[in-house]
């Protein structure tokens, strides 16, 4: 018998929800009536490490919503996150020969978890499948890879099936594919290796998004150069240097390079990448700042949201779980974005890019 998820449907009383969040009813009603897709959910890593149950509703955990315990499926459903990319993160210390086998084991494990509540969640691969799941009132779950070295053994990437919607070429360490933006990768920016260039071409051939989060600046533009110009590029979770200078963030030229392909850029919620000062005191307004900079620089057709919840992040105090996400909508309305522009950012920009990639 399939497990049951327990949660509240806030569509029954949007006024009460607006009051609880301290925002306008207009924002809550717009949010509840919109598709909402998160481009980067890292919660599965905690299931792998200590058995964190994705089907169980959790509290704040040991660190009061810092680092983990930000997401579970009951809260995803209550927050009406209609779609999300659930990520399998790569262990860079595991030997190359073993990584594909371990990755496939994790892929089947995550697939089994997401498929265990078929009345609530549907595993999807395309925009049409997403739309069918959303029409049925289900959460549409995509699967992605964080760290392309999960499958960098010869021939491994070619074996990926279409459950995988995107691959972040590198993560926080240098690999056989190229250079990370992280200081952990060393000072010399080697960009993409020859293997990394071939990897981008292989992802294009399989119609899997090339995700340029985490990659070094030279690696970023190496990937742009070799990438199939007819397909969109994406960055699922990042900040922007035009708001806060940081090694993890994209500059305006990088934003334009993604927009030129018809892709989209997901703003993440790690406080240290959003602004200066104590991570534990970050205001939610910083998220809106980064979104609005993307809109100002390349237009409202190329901004999205990619939280990185449960990716060992410290989110703004007023955005510790998906339940607070309508607050971002309220801020964007106050910044002058139209309801249609906000709907694009919440989901439509990603869906457009996905249709362009997979038809």
Write a structural description.
With 359 residues, this protein is of the alpha/beta class. It has one domain: TIM Barrel. Helices cover 37% and strands 12% of the residues. The chain is built from 13 helices and 9 strands. Strands 1, 2, 3, 4, 5 and 6 form a 6-stranded parallel β-sheet that branches. α7 links the parallel β5 and β6. The longest helix is centred in the C-terminal third of the chain and has 20 residues. The protein is globular, with a radius of gyration of 19 Å. The two termini are 35 Å apart.
How large is the count of helical segments? 13
Structural class, from secondary structure content? alpha/beta
Would you identify the regions where 5 or more consecutive residues have pLDDT less than 50? none
How confident overall, as mean pLDDT? 96
Output the CATH class name. Answer: Alpha Beta
Rg measurement, Å: 19 Å
Rough shape? Answer: globular
CATH superfamily label: Metal-dependent hydrolases
Q: List the secondary-structure elements in sequence, H or E.
A: HHEHHEHEHEEHEHEHEHHEHH
Please summarize the sheet with the most strands: 6 strands, parallel
β content, as a range? 5-15%
Distance between termini?
35 Å
CATH topology: TIM Barrel
Structural domains: how many:
1
Oligomeric state, counting identical vs distinct chains: single chain
Helix fraction, binned, reads 25-40%
CATH architecture assignment name: Alpha-Beta Barrel
What's the number of extended β-strand segments? 9
